[in-house]
Write a structure and sequence with these properties.
196 residues; 10 helices
Length: 196
């Protein structure tokens, strides 16, 4: 894939931000099932705020931790209106100051929108980085630092998605598909899984 993108469905920076917040500890598939109706009713911070926590929760009740996520989405909508003119701020510090937005979420948003090359380290990226010997670090932040250091600048905007998609579909957690892996000949972990 020369230009991989997020599998979350979005039509605006606000929809992307909300979808990424909702995707924490949930699958993109479950988020994509819930968000079309949510965004049809509330596609901007103003309408999301008007919907309120209970209203948002009704749309996203199929997603794990939906009450806390509804609270965060309404709170971040309020802050976007009050402090950013209803627009998603496109800098890391302002994004990470929003409720429900940590380093990983900010990295996904900034990278996907082409603002800042970033490698968000989720469970897939963490696993693939370790299996491929790209990092031996113990925390997502340290794995991110390793990946940012070794990834060529020309690949920084795509590396995040390549690693996620590889971990999601090929280098899966329990039974990696080493036989169909395009980089198995380079993988120091291959022998651990072959024949398993």
């Amino acid at each position: 894939m020369p230009d991989p993108r997020t599998e979350l469905t979005y039509q605006s920076p606000f929809a992307l931000l909300v979808a990424v917040v909702l995707s924490a500890q949930a699958t993109d598939v479950s988020v994509n099932k819930a968000t079309p109706a949510l965004f049809a009713s509330a596609g901007a911070p103003q309408t999301m705020l008007a919907l309120g926590e209970a209203g948002v929760a009704r749309f996203i009740s199929s997603i794990g931790l939906y009450n806390a996520k509804a609270r965060n989405v309404v709170a971040l909508s309020r802050i976007l209106i009050e402090q950013h003119g209803g627009e998603v701020p496109l800098n890391r510090q302002a994004l990470q100051a929003l409720p429900g937005v940590g380093r990983k979420t900010a990295s996904v948003v900034l990278n996907e929108l082409g603002v800042e090359p970033a490698i968000a380290v989720d469970t897939h990226v963490f696993r693939v980085a370790h299996r491929l010997g790209l990092s031996a670090a113990k925390t997502p932040d340290l794995v991110e630092a390793d990946l940012m250091r070794i990834t060529p600048k020309t690949g920084l905007t795509r590396a995040h998605h390549w690693l996620i998609l590889h971990g999601r579909y090929t280098c899966v957690a329990r039974k990696p598909k080493c036989g169909s892996c395009l980089v198995s000949d380079l993988c120091p972990s291959r022998e651990l899984f072959e024949g398993a």
